[in-house]
Amino acid sequence: MDWLTTVDHKKIGILYLIAGGFFFGIGGIEAILIRLQLIKPMNDFVSAQVFNELITMHGTTMIFLGVMPVIFALMNAVIPLQIGARDVAFPFLNSLGFWTFLFGGVLLNLSWVMGGAPDAGWTAYTPLSSSTYSDSHGVDFYTIGLQIAGLGTLIGGINFLVTIITMRAPGMSYMRMPMFTWASFITSAMILFAFPAITVGLVLLSFDRILDANFFDVAAGGSPVLWQHIFWIFGHPEVYILILPAFGIISDVIPTFSRKRLFGYSSMVFATILIAFLGFMVWAHHMFTTGLGPVANALFSIATMLIAVPTGIKIFNWLFTMWGGQISFPTANLFAVGFIPTFVMGGVTGVMLASAPADYQYHDTYFVVAHFHYVIVGGLVFGLLSGLHYWWPKMFGRMLSEPIGKWTFWTFAIGFHLTFFVQHFLGLLGMQRRIVSYLPNQNFDTLNLISTIGALLMGVGILLFLYNIIITSKKPKNAKADPWEDGRTLEWSIPSPPPEYNFKQTPLVRGIDALWKEKMSGNKGMTPAEPVGSIHMPSPSILPFIMSLGLFIAGLGFMFSREGFNNSFMSFIFNNYLVLIVGLLITFGAMITRSLIDDPGYHIEPEDQEEEEKA
Amino acid sequence: MMKRWQALKRLLPLLAMFSLLLSGCGREDLSVLNPQGPVAEGQLGLITISISIMALVVVVVFVIAAYVLIKFRRKPGQNEVPVQVEGNHKLEIIWTAIPLLLVIVLAVPTIQKVFAYGEDKWNEEGVLQVEVTGHQFWWEFSYPQYDITTAQELLMPVDREVALRLRTADVLHSFWVPSLAGKTDTNPDGSINHMSLSTGNPGTYIGKCAELCGQSHGYMEFRVKAVEAEQFDAWVEAFKAPAVLPEDSQLAEKFRTNCLSCHAVGDQGGFLGPNLTGIGSRETIAGILLNDINGAKGSSPVKDNLVQWLSEPQEVKPGNTMPDPKELGFSDEEIEQIADYLANYKLDY
Ligand code: HEM
Ligand SMILES: [Cu+2]
């Protein structure tokens, strides 16, 4: 119950982690099933329809429900600590964001048991995703589930923006913020601009499907290419929304384990901003083969290639952070160091794809599948695993086992390269993507077999990580405040896990890597910026849960509003929009309750702070 | 400086090996790396340039990374604090400038080729015009200059530029013949895309649909067959000959009412399904059942493939729109007969 009502950012971070881990598991199982189907030519392990549902749900789940929440988990767990804040700016909204995300994700996955999952690919290109060509409710689950989940993401993004702008400790100027906070800040800004685009697209598509609107229907004057633009104006920045936090993690982990400050901090900040900006300018590189014409293709080619420049800056800055340092290799750093070459390989194939005439050959083949998995898995997932190993003691007060961690790294990394490296060649040899099967003797057989073996090995890596978590959770909570001993940023100046209010006294920040700076001047910890006093905390609330539940019910109601049930009661409540209305009433009711009830929160007095410290 | 040259010298064989590996790799009728026409060759050229540049970048990063990781690992008992370097403007400018340079090197040929391949050659003199229409899950090719419409197999003369106009009858598809040219989408009516290709080498090239278009997207293959000019003319001639129908008049009638409502043979029939004229001399049935005309591995006699298709079209291509002949009232025996008739419906060219 505690967990349903919590508004504490650290607990919400853990909720995000559990939910994200759960969906990541589902997406992973889907990936394994896809790979098992492709293990040999003309395999009939799954049917063509199920295969299309698997690839659609795998992509959608991984992007929206698997890695996004794990990123949010780390942001929640770490940002307030890194900037010396007691909480996020809007704790209530934070909780609302989590619950809408979770209910949206659950709604989407219910499609597996409620008559067919979406089957038009995670990009849901029309007309394939229109009700004419996809007549199960699958795509409705997609549009509505993602709208609800996307709401959560948008709320989260806004919350982090405001938190970082307004809640930094005294002395924590923008140019002293840790890179993870910087990256999250920019990511949040991108969310603010990108998610409204997909929301608009999803609303239009669901209107097309459920209310017979004609936004994308050619016969009625609509345009399917419009969907592609809307989707990618969101979709491309989304990739950067995913990768920037990973950049941030790497930029925090590498200095810690090299015992050196980040090389070229200001150029890192600048590069991050530039990547975000360019990220919005290049969406049409997903559409080179759509027939936009040579001028558009040329411009988008060049704009895309330019992203290599700030990315290159980052790579070399990381390498030179390590140069002259003293590098140690706990699992967190293994993943961070493994990230660099892997991500570089994903990055260079990105530049190759940017050359439009060459992309006419790569597009929609396994070359692309290899490329984006190098970026998303080799980049982001490596980054997240690094971050999780790094901040685990801070989040849970327990150190993950290092030997198992090393096994996790090696199995995952080797499995990863086995799976995806060969796919570059599959693409160049002529294997298009999203195909349920392939004829033998096209030189695809062996490479696909290798790829599947690799995927299984990656699965083993993830299972090892889970095992590590389980045995760790049985150990005593004895992690030190600064368990890596070379912690540089503020989160390592407070106990692990932190008390409810994070900082008993808000710290005074005197430079980049605030804690390291104090250590170097011979201080034991941060200098406080305020006297010990009573700390104000927000009260827990069940309302976010109820609001999201209402949206979930309304979503189901809307989706089935035209369904012909063979049960007259069901027809009555759905076809008359009763379910939709009840759902919305629940949500609005909870909103009204929230506005009418004046909740002053509560205070933790200095005596209680002492208690907590001892406990 | 000397040292850098030395490093380059060591890289050169690597690059050479790489390009060798790349060309001459994969089936020549299918692989991007084994181009058979000028467009695919140009594209492979770009791919080679970009792979070489990128391999260079990767190698440089790997070398630096390996050096750093080995040289600067923390040794036991090492406790003094390393110098906290803030940055280095000169270095940072260098690694801003180098990627910029590399990008320019790649950008120039990219732009040249974007415009070269973007040209619409439809109205140029001497080209063979072909209108391509994607259907769930088959391809229609029509030749306005010859008033011919065929399916699944695009016949073209060697050494003649083929200008294509692409559209779709339903959802998005993407027309791709890896060894001849990169892909172009077929957008629903209204926006017609164009591309062109040609080859000097007679042969059959495998084409694929590259845009998810439904259940049998993976089975939406087709062939591009390049033949000598005289053969092409002979094919046109033969194609326009009056339709041949089954000899058995009862069977012919059944074929006419049930099959020709969608399909066409010669001058008879409808346009909803693939044109069947001369299907006996095609290399595949339904795009993916290989006929053993060229002795391809895993192939079967045309007739067996036809029987397989006619007995269970949904098994071969799930989700396709052809009605099951058995449900139309064909017995196994009649299916056998129809298959026999179609297998022997060959065009002489
Ligand atoms: C266990 C590791 C993974 C394996 C073995 C794997 C494998 C695959 C395979 C085989 C496909 C289908 C390719 C196709 O025919 O289109 C695919 C598609 C995709 N994957 Fe993964 N994947 C993995 C992890 C991930 C992760 C972590 C993400 C993102 C966070 C991701 C994102 C995607 C996306 C967006 C697609 C495209 C789906 C679509 O075509 O609609 N994958 N993956
Ligand atoms: Cu297709």
TrEMBL record, chain B:
It is found in: Cell membrane; Membrane. Binds a copper A center. One of its GO terms (biological process) is ATP synthesis coupled electron transport. Residues 125-238 form the Cytochrome oxidase subunit II copper A binding domain. Its EC number is 7.1.1.9. Residues 246-346 form the Cytochrome c domain. One of its GO terms (cellular component) is plasma membrane. The chain crosses the membrane at residues 43-70, 91-111. Its cofactor is Cu cation. Subunits I and II form the functional core of the enzyme complex. Electrons originating in cytochrome c are transferred via heme a and Cu(A) to the binuclear center formed by heme a3 and Cu(B). Belongs to the cytochrome c oxidase subunit 2 family. One of its GO terms (molecular function) is heme binding. It catalyses: 4 Fe(II)-[cytochrome c] + O2 + 8 H(+)(in) = 4 Fe(III)-[cytochrome c] + 2 H2O + 4 H(+)(out). It is a multi-pass membrane protein. InterPro entries: CcO_II (IPR045187), CcO_II-like_C (IPR002429), Copper_CuA (IPR001505), Cupredoxin (IPR008972), Cyt_c-like_dom (IPR009056), Cyt_c-like_dom_sf (IPR036909), Cyt_c_oxidase_su2 (IPR014222), Cyt_c_oxidase_su2_TM_dom (IPR011759). Residues 24-121 form the Cytochrome oxidase subunit II transmembrane region profile domain. Its main location: membrane. This is Cytochrome c oxidase subunit 2. The lineage of its organism: Bacteria, Bacillati, Bacillota, Bacilli, Bacillales. Keywords: Copper, Electron transport, Heme, Iron, Membrane, Metal-binding, Respiratory chain, Translocase, Transmembrane, Transmembrane helix, Transport.
